[in-house]
């Protein structure tokens, strides 16, 4: 998820995406334990996306 896309989102959209990515991360962890994950880099990408969304949400709440 790119910064430009995140900046265009509203607070509720950002929160929905955070929840979606957290569910994805949860599933990726189970796949990793069971050796079923096809792309291990997805875990890191998902964590970074969550961090970007949380940072943008924090900025919108403080503004």
Write up this protein.
- The chain has helices at 3-7, 11-33, 41-62.
- The protein contains 3 helices and no strands.
- The radius of gyration is 13 Å and the shape is elongated.
- It is an all-alpha fold and 63 residues long.
Tags for this model:
3 helices; 63 residues; mainly alpha
Q: Roughly how many Å apart are the termini?
A: 22 Å
How is the main sheet built?
none
Give the helix proportion (percent range).
over 70%
| Stretches with pLDDT under 50, minimum 5 residues | none
Task: Write the element-wise H/E pattern from the N-terminal end onward.
Answer: HHH
Radius of gyration: 13 Å
On the 0 to 100 scale, the average pLDDT is 93
β-strand percent reads: under 5%
Overall number of strands: 0
How does the overall form come out from the CA principal axes? elongated
Q: Which structural class matches the secondary elements?
A: mainly alpha
Tally of helical runs: 3
Q: How is the secondary structure organized here?
A:
Elements: H1 3-7, H2 11-33, H3 41-62
Helix pairs in contact: 2-3
In short:
By secondary structure, this protein is mostly helical. The chain is built from 3 helices and no strands. The mean pLDDT is 93.
